[in-house]
Amino acid sequence: MTIRTMHYYKPLHPNGMSTTTSNMTSSLSSGCHAGNIVSPRLFFLPEIQILELFLALLVFIVIHSLRQQKRQGLPVWPVVGMLPSLVAGLRVDMYEWISDVLIRQNGTFEFKGPSFTNLKCVITSDPRNIEHVLKTKFSAYPKGKYFRNALQDLLGDGIFNADNEIWQRQRKTASIEFHSTKFRNLTTESLLELVHHRLLPVLEDSVNQSACIDLQDILLRLTFDNVCMLAFGVDPGCLSPGLPEIPFAQSFEAATEATIIRFVTPTLIWKAMRYLNLGPENKLKQSIKGVDIFADEVIRTRKKELTLQSGDKGQRSDLLTVFMGLKDEQGQSFSDKFLRDICVNFILAGRDTSSVALSWFFWLLDRNPEVEKRILSEISRIAGERNDAKTDAECPLVFRPEEVKKMDYLQAALSESLRLYPSVPVDHKEVVEDDVFPDGTVVKKGTKLVYAIYAMGRMESIWGQDCREFKPERWLRDSRYISESAYKFTAFNGGPRLCLGKDFAYYQMKFVAASILYRYRVKVVENHPVVPKLALTMYIKHGLKVELCRRDDSQLENYLKISN
Ligand code: HEM
């Protein structure tokens, strides 16, 4: 029996150690000969061999998994797949980690998560694939069921979360509205009011008190108030002296944060947690309640107003009023729930994106003073071209829309900032029919697709060897701003789902940046850590702590001289 056991173990020995086996056989035989007195070594042999077997298997698995890295971009481990690499990436910088893998894999790779989770998707940063998905075969790549489910409680059937007719109807109506003169006037007027009567006084206060401020927080307040004015026709007053906490804003922020957790949690688990009201799902439910209380109140009040005005829709040109005046295919008015979804989606679209983009822009300027100088010479020249250029405390300089339009270098610097730090760093789609990408990648029906916008800004194959440098000049020809293909510069998406607020966002960012830079030097507090936060939008994780220094007229005159 002993010998059979030995024979059994022999072929499984990692190194095929026949000499060891024969030694063992003899030692066992001698053990038997010694009047059935079994040597104590005998008891340990099976354990030793199991250990050897285990080690051999381990070595095999490690070698096999690591070998896959060459072909698949990352080691693929049994059961957990590429999860260990993802966990390691999350601990450092998720977006840089994805960029590194994509660069090694020439722009596309398949992430294989644990077999028991939904963490399986194709990730690409190849502009040819992105054009194929966003434009050429648009209808074969909807947002899809998986992502819609995860975002349903917060976004409902709003534009970000809808496909097909539900999306089309909102897109068409909103597009007409965004391009109407009435809406354009509302955007410029509300922005002027917010910048000159809220933002600049808050900044001036910080200078008077020599206090440092979190510029990202202030910009988030500004865009939140602004987009609520456009979507609801209501001013929540987030950006006011003393920077008050507004329950709706807090609920909205908490709801977006809690929603993201669903993307890294297996569906069954988050659904069970939702059912049982546990952890982040409980937080999500509470915060959505806060959002809904505000939305319901606004919708109710607006309905009353419109009934009182009976027929005359008044002077209002916000999105809520426009959608309230429409009917669905059955000739019915939209339900309150649908109106709520429309508004919440527009707030998400317009709130975080431009404020976060401006925050990265001010950080990049702090590190690239040459670029700041060139912006200042441009805006001083434009201000200097006025007949009534003299301004003072009573009559401060307010940039006019036609002046903002002329700020080509500033637009180039903002685009360059968005290229390196896109507000939406990754976006997603679902594959509804088997297909082959232009780069040869085969994608099967049901595959989740992620396009890595942040990584695209770091691909030499797209932007050249200096892709990691902040160079607004790459956007200029003869000092004029030249836009890029949406499939190379995907910060605003592309194809039929191109960002509807793109023109407004550029106007808003240019107006805010020029109004601040003309008056203050923005200095980032020394050693303040600036890293991205993992969220739907790419916030700076610890905010942007800055000190402002007032500019005097002589400084501005110097910049004007440079420009001449
Ligand atoms: C720097 C600022 C902005 C950036 C980088 C940006 C980026 C984007 C991106 C990447 C998308 C596609 C999202 C997706 O489908 O998953 C998008 C869609 C959209 N954006 Fe923007 N956005 C900005 C500002 C704004 C503003 C200020 C508004 C409105 C006030 C706005 C309104 C929209 C709308 C309505 C959509 C949905 C379009 C559709 O699905 O048909 N965006 N934006």
TrEMBL record:
Protein name: Cytochrome P450
Sequence similarity: Belongs to the cytochrome P450 family.
Biological process according to GO: lipid metabolic process
Membrane topology: Single-pass membrane protein
Cofactor requirement: heme
Organism name: Escallonia herrerae
Major location category of this protein: membrane
GO MF annotation: an example: heme binding
Membrane-spanning segments: 48-66
Residues reported to bind heme: C499
GO cellular component, one term: membrane
